[in-house]
Amino acid sequence: MKQKHLVVIGGGAAGFFTAVNAARMHPALQVTLLEKSSKLLSKVSVSGGGRCNVTHHCFEIGEMIKNYPRGAQFVKKAFHQFFTTDTIQWFEDRGVALKAENDGRMFPATNSSETIIECLLKEANRYGVDIRMNAAVKKISMFNNEQQVPDAKQKKFGVYYSDTGFLEADFVCLACGGYPKASQYNWLQFAAHHIEPPVPSLFTFNMPGNSITGLMGVSAAHVIAKIAGTKRIAEGPLLITHWGMSGPCILRLSAWGAKELAERQYHFTLLVNWAPGYSEQQLRREWMVWRQQYGANKIYQRNPFALPARLWHYLLQQSNITETQRWSELLTKQQNTLIQLLTASPFEVKGKTTFKEEFVTCGGIDVAEIDVNTMQSKKHPGLFFAGEIMNVDGITGGFNFQHAWTSGWIAAKAIAQMAGN
Question: pTM of the full predicted structure?
Answer without folding.
Answer: 0.90
